[in-house]
Design a protein that fits this description.
Blueprint: H1 2-22, E1 31-37, E2 39-55, E3 58-61, E4 67-72, E5 79-80, E6 85-89, H2 92-134, H3 140-179, E7 182-184, E8 189-194, E9 201-202, E10 215-218, E11 223-230, E12 242-247, E13 255-262, E14 267-268, E15 275-285, E16 296-313, E17 318-322, E18 327-336, E19 339-350, E20 354-359, E21 366-370, H4 372-375, E22 384-386
Parallel strand pairs: 1-22
Antiparallel strand pairs: 1-21, 2-11, 2-16, 3-10, 4-6, 4-9, 5-8, 6-7, 8-10, 11-15, 12-13, 12-16, 13-15, 14-15, 16-20, 17-18, 18-19, 19-20
Helix pairs in contact: 2-3
Length: about 400
Protein backbone atom coordinates (compact mmCIF):
# COMPACT_ATOMS: atom_id res chain seq x y z
CA UNK A 1 0.00 0.00 0.00
CA UNK A 2 2.80 2.41 0.88
CA UNK A 3 4.50 1.49 -2.38
CA UNK A 4 1.40 2.48 -4.35
CA UNK A 5 1.15 5.78 -2.50
CA UNK A 6 4.79 6.54 -3.25
CA UNK A 7 4.25 5.85 -6.97
CA UNK A 8 1.12 8.04 -7.10
CA UNK A 9 2.97 10.85 -5.30
CA UNK A 10 5.86 10.67 -7.70
CA UNK A 11 3.55 10.83 -10.71
CA UNK A 12 1.68 13.82 -9.26
CA UNK A 13 4.96 15.66 -8.60
CA UNK A 14 6.14 15.01 -12.16
CA UNK A 15 2.86 16.28 -13.63
CA UNK A 16 2.99 19.43 -11.51
CA UNK A 17 6.57 20.11 -12.57
CA UNK A 18 5.70 19.65 -16.25
CA UNK A 19 2.74 22.00 -15.88
CA UNK A 20 4.87 24.66 -14.25
CA UNK A 21 7.48 24.37 -16.98
CA UNK A 22 4.85 24.71 -19.70
CA UNK A 23 3.45 27.98 -18.22
CA UNK A 24 6.38 30.02 -16.89
CA UNK A 25 4.11 32.99 -16.19
CA UNK A 26 2.52 31.08 -13.34
CA UNK A 27 5.63 31.45 -11.21
CA UNK A 28 4.94 35.15 -10.82
CA UNK A 29 7.23 36.34 -13.63
CA UNK A 30 5.74 38.48 -16.42
CA UNK A 31 6.89 39.33 -19.95
CA UNK A 32 7.57 42.94 -20.85
CA UNK A 33 5.67 44.09 -23.94
CA UNK A 34 5.27 47.20 -26.07
CA UNK A 35 1.84 48.71 -26.57
CA UNK A 36 0.25 51.25 -28.91
CA UNK A 37 -3.02 53.13 -28.57
CA UNK A 38 -5.81 52.71 -31.12
CA UNK A 39 -6.16 56.24 -32.52
CA UNK A 40 -7.11 58.01 -35.77
CA UNK A 41 -4.36 57.80 -38.37
CA UNK A 42 -3.69 58.69 -41.98
CA UNK A 43 -3.33 55.56 -44.13
CA UNK A 44 -2.03 55.49 -47.67
CA UNK A 45 -2.56 52.13 -49.36
CA UNK A 46 -0.04 51.63 -52.14
CA UNK A 47 1.17 49.29 -54.84
CA UNK A 48 4.86 48.82 -55.56
CA UNK A 49 6.24 48.41 -59.08
CA UNK A 50 9.52 48.76 -60.92
CA UNK A 51 10.49 49.88 -64.39
CA UNK A 52 12.51 52.47 -66.28
CA UNK A 53 12.54 56.12 -67.21
CA UNK A 54 11.71 56.59 -70.89
CA UNK A 55 10.90 59.41 -73.30
CA UNK A 56 7.33 59.86 -74.47
CA UNK A 57 8.52 61.80 -77.52
CA UNK A 58 11.39 59.87 -79.04
CA UNK A 59 12.16 59.35 -82.72
CA UNK A 60 14.74 57.03 -84.25
CA UNK A 61 15.67 58.52 -87.61
CA UNK A 62 16.22 56.21 -90.57
CA UNK A 63 16.64 56.82 -94.27
CA UNK A 64 14.36 55.96 -97.18
CA UNK A 65 17.15 56.32 -99.73
CA UNK A 66 20.52 54.63 -100.03
CA UNK A 67 23.66 56.70 -100.19
CA UNK A 68 26.93 57.75 -98.64
CA UNK A 69 26.71 60.21 -95.76
CA UNK A 70 28.49 63.40 -96.82
CA UNK A 71 27.73 65.60 -93.82
CA UNK A 72 26.57 65.38 -90.20
CA UNK A 73 25.75 68.73 -88.64
CA UNK A 74 25.04 67.74 -85.01
CA UNK A 75 26.75 65.84 -82.24
CA UNK A 76 25.36 63.57 -79.56
CA UNK A 77 23.85 65.70 -76.79
CA UNK A 78 23.09 68.71 -79.03
CA UNK A 79 19.73 70.46 -78.75
CA UNK A 80 17.86 70.64 -82.06
CA UNK A 81 14.66 72.26 -83.30
CA UNK A 82 11.94 70.84 -85.51
CA UNK A 83 12.94 71.16 -89.19
CA UNK A 84 16.65 71.61 -88.48
CA UNK A 85 19.03 69.95 -90.98
CA UNK A 86 20.85 67.13 -89.23
CA UNK A 87 22.49 65.00 -91.90
CA UNK A 88 23.18 65.04 -95.65
CA UNK A 89 23.32 61.98 -97.92
CA UNK A 90 25.13 62.13 -101.28
CA UNK A 91 22.47 63.50 -103.65
CA UNK A 92 24.31 63.46 -107.00
CA UNK A 93 22.34 60.54 -108.46
CA UNK A 94 19.02 61.86 -107.14
CA UNK A 95 19.71 65.38 -108.40
CA UNK A 96 20.50 63.98 -111.87
CA UNK A 97 17.25 62.02 -111.79
CA UNK A 98 15.34 65.21 -111.02
CA UNK A 99 16.99 67.05 -113.90
CA UNK A 100 16.24 64.17 -116.26
CA UNK A 101 12.59 64.14 -115.28
CA UNK A 102 12.38 67.92 -115.58
CA UNK A 103 13.63 67.59 -119.18
CA UNK A 104 11.02 64.90 -119.84
CA UNK A 105 8.29 67.20 -118.55
CA UNK A 106 9.48 70.02 -120.81
CA UNK A 107 9.54 67.67 -123.82
CA UNK A 108 5.98 66.56 -123.08
CA UNK A 109 4.86 70.16 -122.82
CA UNK A 110 6.40 70.88 -126.25
CA UNK A 111 4.72 67.77 -127.66
CA UNK A 112 1.37 69.01 -126.35
CA UNK A 113 1.90 72.39 -127.95
CA UNK A 114 2.68 70.67 -131.28
CA UNK A 115 -0.36 68.42 -131.01
CA UNK A 116 -2.51 71.41 -130.06
CA UNK A 117 -1.43 73.33 -133.17
CA UNK A 118 -2.07 70.31 -135.39
CA UNK A 119 -5.50 69.73 -133.85
CA UNK A 120 -6.42 73.41 -134.27
CA UNK A 121 -5.42 73.31 -137.96
CA UNK A 122 -7.38 70.12 -138.57
CA UNK A 123 -10.43 71.62 -136.86
CA UNK A 124 -10.28 74.64 -139.18
CA UNK A 125 -10.04 72.33 -142.20
CA UNK A 126 -12.90 70.25 -140.87
CA UNK A 127 -15.10 73.35 -140.55
CA UNK A 128 -14.41 74.22 -144.19
CA UNK A 129 -15.01 70.66 -145.37
CA UNK A 130 -18.27 70.52 -143.46
CA UNK A 131 -19.53 73.67 -145.20
CA UNK A 132 -18.64 72.21 -148.57
CA UNK A 133 -20.22 68.89 -147.66
CA UNK A 134 -23.45 70.57 -146.68
CA UNK A 135 -23.59 72.16 -150.14
CA UNK A 136 -22.77 68.76 -151.71
CA UNK A 137 -19.52 70.09 -153.15
CA UNK A 138 -17.50 67.15 -151.75
CA UNK A 139 -18.45 63.54 -151.35
CA UNK A 140 -19.00 61.69 -148.08
CA UNK A 141 -15.70 59.80 -148.25
CA UNK A 142 -13.66 63.00 -148.37
CA UNK A 143 -15.56 64.52 -145.43
CA UNK A 144 -15.25 61.28 -143.39
CA UNK A 145 -11.51 61.22 -143.98
CA UNK A 146 -11.10 64.77 -142.63
CA UNK A 147 -13.34 63.94 -139.66
CA UNK A 148 -11.29 60.84 -138.82
CA UNK A 149 -8.04 62.76 -139.08
CA UNK A 150 -9.35 65.38 -136.62
CA UNK A 151 -10.45 62.68 -134.17
CA UNK A 152 -7.04 61.03 -134.30
CA UNK A 153 -5.34 64.41 -133.66
CA UNK A 154 -7.55 65.06 -130.63
CA UNK A 155 -6.75 61.58 -129.29
CA UNK A 156 -3.04 62.21 -129.81
CA UNK A 157 -3.41 65.50 -127.93
CA UNK A 158 -5.11 63.75 -125.01
CA UNK A 159 -2.40 61.07 -125.02
CA UNK A 160 0.29 63.76 -124.85
CA UNK A 161 -1.48 65.35 -121.88
CA UNK A 162 -1.55 61.99 -120.07
CA UNK A 163 2.12 61.52 -120.84
CA UNK A 164 2.76 64.93 -119.31
CA UNK A 165 0.89 63.89 -116.14
CA UNK A 166 2.99 60.74 -115.96
CA UNK A 167 6.22 62.72 -116.42
CA UNK A 168 5.16 65.20 -113.72
CA UNK A 169 4.44 62.31 -111.34
CA UNK A 170 7.88 60.84 -112.03
CA UNK A 171 9.43 64.26 -111.46
CA UNK A 172 7.59 64.54 -108.15
CA UNK A 173 8.88 61.11 -107.08
CA UNK A 174 12.43 62.05 -108.05
CA UNK A 175 12.15 65.35 -106.17
CA UNK A 176 10.82 63.49 -103.14
CA UNK A 177 13.77 61.08 -103.19
CA UNK A 178 16.12 64.05 -103.53
CA UNK A 179 14.53 65.79 -100.53
CA UNK A 180 15.06 62.64 -98.44
CA UNK A 181 18.80 62.97 -98.83
CA UNK A 182 18.47 65.88 -96.40
CA UNK A 183 17.55 64.46 -92.99
CA UNK A 184 15.80 67.02 -90.77
CA UNK A 185 14.56 66.76 -87.20
CA UNK A 186 10.82 66.01 -86.94
CA UNK A 187 10.67 67.28 -83.34
CA UNK A 188 12.49 69.62 -81.03
CA UNK A 189 14.70 67.83 -78.55
CA UNK A 190 18.14 66.40 -77.90
CA UNK A 191 20.29 64.05 -79.95
CA UNK A 192 20.47 61.08 -77.60
CA UNK A 193 22.42 58.79 -79.93
CA UNK A 194 24.36 59.16 -83.18
CA UNK A 195 24.74 55.83 -84.96
CA UNK A 196 26.46 56.72 -88.25
CA UNK A 197 29.57 58.58 -89.39
CA UNK A 198 30.53 60.66 -92.41
CA UNK A 199 31.58 58.33 -95.22
CA UNK A 200 29.43 55.43 -94.12
CA UNK A 201 26.51 54.28 -96.25
CA UNK A 202 22.99 54.92 -95.06
CA UNK A 203 20.74 51.98 -95.88
CA UNK A 204 16.98 51.90 -96.16
CA UNK A 205 15.97 48.93 -94.04
CA UNK A 206 13.59 47.97 -91.25
CA UNK A 207 16.09 45.50 -89.80
CA UNK A 208 18.73 46.45 -87.27
CA UNK A 209 21.76 46.37 -89.56
CA UNK A 210 24.65 48.87 -89.70
CA UNK A 211 23.58 51.99 -91.57
CA UNK A 212 19.84 51.51 -91.08
CA UNK A 213 19.73 53.74 -87.98
CA UNK A 214 21.03 57.28 -88.27
CA UNK A 215 20.35 58.91 -84.91
CA UNK A 216 17.75 59.23 -82.16
CA UNK A 217 16.06 62.48 -81.15
CA UNK A 218 14.13 62.76 -77.87
CA UNK A 219 12.29 65.55 -76.12
CA UNK A 220 13.84 65.72 -72.62
CA UNK A 221 10.71 67.36 -71.24
CA UNK A 222 8.66 64.28 -72.13
CA UNK A 223 10.52 61.86 -69.85
CA UNK A 224 8.24 59.65 -67.75
CA UNK A 225 8.32 56.43 -65.78
CA UNK A 226 7.06 53.24 -67.34
CA UNK A 227 6.60 50.44 -64.80
CA UNK A 228 5.11 46.96 -64.76
CA UNK A 229 2.28 46.42 -62.28
CA UNK A 230 1.48 42.83 -61.36
CA UNK A 231 -1.91 41.59 -62.54
CA UNK A 232 -2.86 40.89 -58.91
CA UNK A 233 -2.58 44.62 -58.12
CA UNK A 234 -3.80 46.22 -61.35
CA UNK A 235 -7.45 46.29 -60.20
CA UNK A 236 -6.48 48.87 -57.56
CA UNK A 237 -4.62 51.13 -60.00
CA UNK A 238 -6.39 53.93 -61.90
CA UNK A 239 -5.48 56.88 -64.11
CA UNK A 240 -4.95 60.04 -62.06
CA UNK A 241 -3.59 58.36 -58.93
CA UNK A 242 -0.56 59.93 -57.27
CA UNK A 243 2.77 58.14 -57.17
CA UNK A 244 6.29 58.53 -55.86
CA UNK A 245 9.15 57.61 -58.16
CA UNK A 246 12.62 56.70 -56.92
CA UNK A 247 15.40 56.60 -59.51
CA UNK A 248 17.96 53.98 -58.54
CA UNK A 249 20.70 56.61 -58.80
CA UNK A 250 18.84 58.86 -56.32
CA UNK A 251 17.20 56.50 -53.78
CA UNK A 252 16.68 59.25 -51.19
CA UNK A 253 15.17 61.88 -53.51
CA UNK A 254 11.60 60.87 -54.38
CA UNK A 255 9.88 62.44 -57.36
CA UNK A 256 6.15 63.06 -57.59
CA UNK A 257 4.05 61.83 -60.47
CA UNK A 258 0.55 61.01 -61.71
CA UNK A 259 -0.60 57.93 -63.62
CA UNK A 260 -1.20 58.91 -67.24
CA UNK A 261 -2.20 55.61 -68.83
CA UNK A 262 -2.60 51.89 -68.17
CA UNK A 263 -2.05 49.24 -70.85
CA UNK A 264 -5.18 47.46 -72.03
CA UNK A 265 -3.54 44.04 -72.35
CA UNK A 266 -1.12 42.18 -70.11
CA UNK A 267 2.38 41.10 -71.06
CA UNK A 268 5.23 39.10 -69.62
CA UNK A 269 7.79 41.64 -68.42
CA UNK A 270 11.46 41.00 -69.06
CA UNK A 271 12.94 38.93 -66.26
CA UNK A 272 9.51 38.10 -64.79
CA UNK A 273 7.36 35.00 -64.97
CA UNK A 274 3.84 36.28 -64.26
CA UNK A 275 1.75 38.71 -66.29
CA UNK A 276 1.89 42.44 -65.69
CA UNK A 277 0.48 45.66 -67.12
CA UNK A 278 2.55 48.59 -68.37
CA UNK A 279 1.68 51.79 -66.51
CA UNK A 280 2.95 55.22 -67.61
CA UNK A 281 3.50 57.84 -64.92
CA UNK A 282 3.94 61.53 -65.76
CA UNK A 283 6.57 63.27 -63.64
CA UNK A 284 5.34 66.47 -62.01
CA UNK A 285 8.05 67.32 -59.47
CA UNK A 286 11.51 65.94 -60.14
CA UNK A 287 13.15 67.30 -56.97
CA UNK A 288 16.02 68.62 -59.14
CA UNK A 289 17.09 65.09 -60.04
CA UNK A 290 19.12 64.78 -63.25
CA UNK A 291 17.06 62.29 -65.22
CA UNK A 292 18.39 60.11 -67.99
CA UNK A 293 16.34 57.72 -70.12
CA UNK A 294 16.93 54.08 -69.35
CA UNK A 295 17.45 54.67 -65.62
CA UNK A 296 15.90 51.97 -63.46
CA UNK A 297 13.31 53.15 -61.00
CA UNK A 298 10.88 51.87 -58.42
CA UNK A 299 7.46 53.39 -57.93
CA UNK A 300 4.97 53.51 -55.09
CA UNK A 301 1.46 54.13 -56.43
CA UNK A 302 -1.02 55.40 -53.84
CA UNK A 303 -4.23 53.53 -54.58
CA UNK A 304 -6.26 54.83 -51.61
CA UNK A 305 -5.71 57.57 -49.04
CA UNK A 306 -7.81 57.79 -45.88
CA UNK A 307 -7.57 60.38 -43.13
CA UNK A 308 -8.67 59.96 -39.52
CA UNK A 309 -9.40 56.23 -39.42
CA UNK A 310 -8.68 54.08 -36.35
CA UNK A 311 -5.51 52.07 -36.87
CA UNK A 312 -2.77 50.16 -35.05
CA UNK A 313 0.75 49.20 -36.15
CA UNK A 314 0.48 46.44 -38.71
CA UNK A 315 2.63 44.03 -36.68
CA UNK A 316 -0.05 43.92 -33.96
CA UNK A 317 -2.49 42.10 -36.25
CA UNK A 318 -2.30 38.31 -36.04
CA UNK A 319 -3.93 36.03 -38.60
CA UNK A 320 -5.86 32.84 -37.85
CA UNK A 321 -6.65 30.47 -40.70
CA UNK A 322 -9.62 28.19 -39.97
CA UNK A 323 -9.23 25.57 -42.68
CA UNK A 324 -12.26 23.55 -41.65
CA UNK A 325 -14.46 26.59 -42.28
CA UNK A 326 -12.31 27.93 -45.15
CA UNK A 327 -12.05 31.39 -43.62
CA UNK A 328 -9.49 33.70 -42.09
CA UNK A 329 -9.89 35.71 -38.91
CA UNK A 330 -7.77 38.43 -37.34
CA UNK A 331 -7.05 39.11 -33.69
CA UNK A 332 -4.95 41.34 -31.47
CA UNK A 333 -3.90 41.20 -27.85
CA UNK A 334 -5.35 44.10 -25.92
CA UNK A 335 -3.38 45.28 -22.90
CA UNK A 336 -5.79 45.43 -19.97
CA UNK A 337 -5.10 45.28 -16.22
CA UNK A 338 -1.52 44.02 -16.75
CA UNK A 339 -2.79 41.11 -18.82
CA UNK A 340 -3.04 40.19 -22.52
CA UNK A 341 -6.63 39.78 -23.67
CA UNK A 342 -7.17 38.21 -27.10
CA UNK A 343 -9.73 40.15 -29.17
CA UNK A 344 -10.99 39.24 -32.62
CA UNK A 345 -11.06 42.34 -34.87
CA UNK A 346 -12.23 43.36 -38.29
CA UNK A 347 -9.59 45.06 -40.44
CA UNK A 348 -9.67 47.45 -43.37
CA UNK A 349 -7.20 49.53 -45.34
CA UNK A 350 -3.50 49.16 -44.62
CA UNK A 351 -0.16 50.57 -45.68
CA UNK A 352 3.42 49.62 -44.84
CA UNK A 353 3.02 50.84 -41.23
CA UNK A 354 -0.63 50.97 -40.16
CA UNK A 355 -3.64 48.64 -40.32
CA UNK A 356 -7.14 50.06 -40.02
CA UNK A 357 -9.36 48.39 -37.37
CA UNK A 358 -13.06 48.60 -38.27
CA UNK A 359 -14.50 46.50 -35.45
CA UNK A 360 -13.67 44.75 -32.18
CA UNK A 361 -11.87 47.65 -30.48
CA UNK A 362 -12.61 51.23 -29.48
CA UNK A 363 -10.57 54.38 -29.75
CA UNK A 364 -8.10 54.62 -26.90
CA UNK A 365 -7.72 50.85 -26.38
CA UNK A 366 -4.15 49.74 -25.87
CA UNK A 367 -2.86 46.97 -28.13
CA UNK A 368 0.28 44.88 -27.68
CA UNK A 369 2.59 45.39 -30.68
CA UNK A 370 5.78 43.58 -29.63
CA UNK A 371 8.35 42.36 -29.26
CA UNK A 372 7.53 39.80 -31.92
CA UNK A 373 8.99 36.80 -30.04
CA UNK A 374 6.64 37.52 -27.13
CA UNK A 375 3.64 38.45 -29.26
CA UNK A 376 3.77 35.18 -31.18
CA UNK A 377 3.73 33.06 -27.99
CA UNK A 378 1.12 35.01 -26.01
CA UNK A 379 -2.08 33.35 -24.91
CA UNK A 380 -5.31 34.91 -23.70
CA UNK A 381 -4.93 35.93 -20.08
CA UNK A 382 -1.13 35.90 -19.89
CA UNK A 383 0.29 38.34 -17.37
CA UNK A 384 2.39 41.09 -18.99
CA UNK A 385 3.98 44.35 -18.00
CA UNK A 386 4.83 47.44 -19.99
CA UNK A 387 6.34 50.84 -19.73
CA UNK A 388 4.26 53.97 -20.32
CA UNK A 389 1.99 53.49 -23.39
CA UNK A 390 3.48 54.68 -26.68
Amino acid sequence: MKKKLLIIGALAAAAAAALLLSRPLWDGRTEEVQVATLAPRSIQASVLASGHLVHEEEVMLTTEVIGRVTGIYVEEGDRVTAGQLLLQIDDEIYRAAVEQNEATVRMQEIAIQRQQVRADNLRTQWERQRALHERNLIDDDSFDAVTNELSVAEIDLQSSRESLSQAEAQLEQAADRLSKTRVVSPIGGTVTSLDIKVGETAISSTTNIPGSSLMTIANPDSIHAEVNVDEADIANVAVGQKAQIFAIAYPDRPMEGVIDSIAVSARVAEGAQGLSFAVKIRLEKTNRVVLRPGMSCRVEIYTDIREGILAVPIQAILVDEIRSENRITYHVFEYEDRAARQVEVQVGLSDDTWQAVTGGLNEGDEVIVGPDRVLRSLADGDRVTTAAPE
